Amino acid sequence: MSDRCIPVTVLTGFLGAGKTTLLNRILTEPHGLRIAVIENEFGEIGIDQALVVRSDEEIFEMNNGCICCTVRGDLIRILGNLAKRRGKFDHVVLETTGLADPGPVAQTFFMDEEIKADFRIDGIVTVVDAKHAAQQKDRSGEWREQVAFADRVILNKADLVDEGALAEVESVVRSINALARIERASRCDVPIRRLLDLGGFDLGRAMAIRPTFLVPEYPFEWTGVYAVGGPASLEIGGDHDHDHGHGHGHGHGHGHGHDHGHHHDHPEAEFVALALPRADDAALKEAAERAVRLFAEPAAAKKSGQGLPLGAHVAVHTGCHAVSLALEAPKDTLVAVFAQHAPEEVCVHVKSGGAELAPALERAWADGHTHDDEVGSVGLTTDRPLDLKKTNQWLSGYVQAHGPDVYRLKGVLSLEGRDRRYVVQGVHMLIDGREDETWRAEERRVSQLVFIGKHLDRKELEAGFLDCVA
Amino acid sequence: MGLFDGLLGGSKNKVAWARPGGEPALALAWVGGGSALAVGRSDGTVEVLDASSGAPRRGERLHPEGLLAMAQDPLGTLLATGGADGQVIVLDATTFERKKTIDTSAKTRGAWVEHVAFSPDGSFVAFAAGKLLWIGRLRGGSDLFECGPHASTIAGLSFSPDGTQLAAARYGGVDLWSVEGSHVRELPWKSSLVSIAWQPGGRYLAAGCQDDAVHFWRLDTFADSMMGGYPSKPRAIAWSRSGEQLATGGGQEVVVWSFKGKGPEGTSPAILKGHEGLVSVLAASPEDQRFASGGRDGRVLVWRPQRSETPVMSLELGDVVHAIAFSGDGRLAAGAANGSVTVARLP
Q1: Quick one: closest CA in B to A83, which residue?
Q2: Please, are residues A152 and A179 in contact by the beta-carbon 8 Å criterion?
Q3: Which residues contact A326 (CB under 8 A, 6 or more apart)?
Q4: CA of A62, closest CA in chain B: separation in Å?
Q5: A250: Cβ–Cβ under 8 A, 6 or more apart, which residues?
Q6: Considering only alpha carbons, which residue of chain B is nearest residue A51?
Q7: Chain-wide mean pLDDT for chain A?
């Protein structure tokens, strides 16, 4: 019956972020889908249009008092009635008010058997106002929650701010939600058809589209792109006092004054260098996905004077002495250097012909380290197979105890004695798990589990996760 | 084919007629003294079919934005419909002459009219849209009493059997209104009520709850009680004609509680198995103690739970069953999401 389920896209975002603009695009652009819209009580879409329903966002708490059982009562009614008009529309778009907590919305699709039988949530799309995000992120818990719940974040009004500010907002979004895909837009000009087919709650499909999507955070903090015209080297570390001119005017997304305690000495620094087709953001992002995969491979130890091949994961010892690696890149190549540590911590330059090259493009990546009191993501990985029973017990126990703080949970697990991937999906206290595709022969069987929420204790999660190893 | 067809001699014998196709059949009403069957369809059309052949007699699209509710008065001469357009239409079931048309949308910013009900003697019609409900006098005047706004959207209406009060279920409890529009009392319950049914004897009010339970009140003392353990929300509930039994959905089984003597507390219900999907609708026979259940599996089963936990009749409609109506003279009509309408003779 599940293939008969009508997909639902949930649209969240602050007032003024551009939800109405996006809704209008969804209703007017030729994408071939018949859309039913459920708009919030302040909705601006004309009621005279066919299949636009106004909802009053009635939050129903259950008698057991559990916030994780809180559902949107109006949705149950409206969707229940829409289900009876099956065949008149292909897709439902649900707009929420700017201050809505997406939790009850998502839970409605887990909790109600009739809704589950007729509808499936395709994805949660959060529209972020790039111009005002800086103020909203600090003032509003709802803003952070909406970002935390998202499968896709549309960074709207990107044309109104400069590249540095955009990168900073992206870093903030990434530090809250390591899983969401971020898309820059002006007047919400994103491809509608793709937006309505995210498969955000279908992990099997999401993995196929982007195999690294469950890698919870970038394992590197900074990337510089250099136009290398001739022989060049990567210079790492050394006790420089001078200002090394990287010009990180835009901060690194973790400039909230929290303490990077573990960064204070770096016996090791890891790098990946990749060739880029162009020095632009899209090419860089694509390369970053490759770099994520390379960082997951064991690093080759390199000493000063050795070479740095493109597409390899290397590690060097840093200390008082600078390390120099010869870049093994063809002449006239754009080389992106992905560095494990930010340049303030481990200084990096590319030198060619005795002079330092200025980066053609540089970018800081969110490091994903979360504050205990903030909304953030914790990712767990192991290549040792997990025991189903232990994992089940631990996960159920964890969400029982911490459900209110766990906004989203996604995972692909390799279970002892099973040939199929096991995918899990959760919202607060509700978890769904099922067997998915068979692991391919050449594939590394890695279990990946990501929690997005607040007050997440990374150490506790790591310990609990590793206890599940068979 | 039905699960029990082998046992019961096949479905062909009992089916008087079946009319396939059309827009989803959401509501059914026997009208014209049992000579016709009114079908309310999701596209807003009300169709009147000849009860002996299924041939269409009349049809009109009353609610272009869709129909959500339909009821008939106890004499079977009037129909009331509610739609997504916020309109309520009361019309003659034979001539389709409109007796009343009421537009609620200005008062509710366009809420759907999801519930309509006639009082047991047909003197009043009640309808609800969003958090408001109205009670209209049909005889001895034409008053229209507006009741509310309620604390939350109304999820069900049920008149008391003596016709003096109306119960409105919502999130957080039930409101009782006199038929002349004054608030009688609130029966609070901290849950979302999704349906409501006044017992034919007038002693109990029962409500299905979103959190997988049935709640009920004793109306002499207003003491309340609940029955839980359902796998899903028991939206479908129906009292037997005698009021001694309450049939409830909330899963693939029909769960029947006995209200004989002291009531259901501490007793075990009868569990009737036969559906392979959630029970979507329940109805009680006005002639005897039988129930009929419809399911998401497309099956209609008729039960006589005092005698047996095996259904006495089975029909296959091929899609989610949305409506069941006993005629009161030995026939049963059922309508489904695939638009089909089937009339069968009860064994």
Answers
A1: B337
A2: no
A3: A231, A232, A233, A305, A306, A307, A308
A4: 5
A5: A163, A164, A165, A167, A168, A364
A6: B65
A7: 81
Residue B91 phi/psi, 5° resolution? Answer: -140, 160
Q: How many whole angstroms separate alpha carbon B107 and alpha carbon A214?
A: 49
Distance, first Cα to last Cα, chain B:
18
Nearest by Cα to B220 from B239, B238, B236, B199: B199
Assess contact for A13 and A126: CB atoms under 8 A: yes
- Tell me how far CA of residue A274 lies from CA of A284, A306, A460, B29, B85, in angstroms: 10, 17, 35, 72, 60
| Contact B232/A at CB under 8 A | yes
Inter-residue contact A155 to A184 (CB < 8 Å): yes
Q: Spell out the residues 6+ positions from residue B312 whose beta carbon is closer than 8 angstroms to its own.
A: B8, B290, B302, B303, B304, B346, B347
* Among A130-144, A303-317, B26-40, the least confident range: A130-144
Tokens of B271: 């569990």
DSSP single-letter state for residue A301: E
**Cβ contacts of B112 on chain A, cutoff 8 Å:** 53, 81
| Per-residue pLDDT at A336 exceeds 70 | yes
Highest mean pLDDT among A38-47, A134-143, A359-368, B159-168: B159-168
**A185-211: string of b/e by CB count within 10 Å (b at 16+)?**
beebbbebeebbbbbbbbbeebbeeee
Edge-to-edge strand list for the sheet holding B224-227: B156-159, B165-178, B183-198, B204-209, B213-218, B224-227
Work out the average pLDDT over A38-61. Answer: 72
DSSP category for residue A415: B
- pTM of the shown model: 0.77
Residues of A with Cβ-Cβ distance to B211 under 8 angstroms: 62-64, 69
Nearest chain A residue (CA) to B25: A84
The answer, for A112 touching chain B at a CB cutoff of 8 Å, is yes
- In this complex, is the C-beta atom of B12 within 8 Å of any C-beta atom belonging to chain A? no
**Looking at chain A from residue 48 to 107, which residues have their Cβ under 8 Å from any Cβ of chain B?**
50, 53-54, 56, 58, 60-64, 69, 71, 73-74, 76-77, 81, 84-86
> In chain B, which residues have their Cβ closer than 8 Å to the Cβ of A84?
24, 26, 42, 322, 337
Closest-approach residue (CA) in chain B for A110: B232
d(CA B172, CA B104): 24
Checking if the pLDDT of A257 tops 60, the result is no
Residue of A nearest to B337 (CA): A84
In chain A, which residues have their Cβ closer than 8 Å to the Cβ of B296? 117
How much is the pLDDT for A66? 72
Q: In chain A, which residues have their Cβ closer than 8 Å to the Cβ of B153?
A: 56, 58, 73-74, 77
Instruction: Please name which of A304, A298, A327, A328 lies closest in space to residue A316, comparing C-alpha atoms.
Output: A304
Three-state DSSP class for B115?
strand
Check whether B251 has a pLDDT greater than 90: yes
Radius of gyration for the alpha carbons in chain B, expressed in angstroms and rounded: 19
This model of the complex carries an ipTM of 0.90
Main-chain phi, psi angles of A444, to 5 degrees: -75, 125
d(CA A339, CA A295): 10
User: Within a 10 A sphere around the Cβ of A67, how many other Cβ atoms?
Assistant: 16
In the block, tokens 């994103």 appear at: A190
Q: Which of B65, B66, B110 sits opposite A54 (nearest CB)?
A: B110
How far off is chain A from B209, nearest CA to CA, in Å? 9
Chain A contact set for B322 (CB, 8 A): 84
> Smallest CA–CA separation between B190 and chain A, in Å?
6
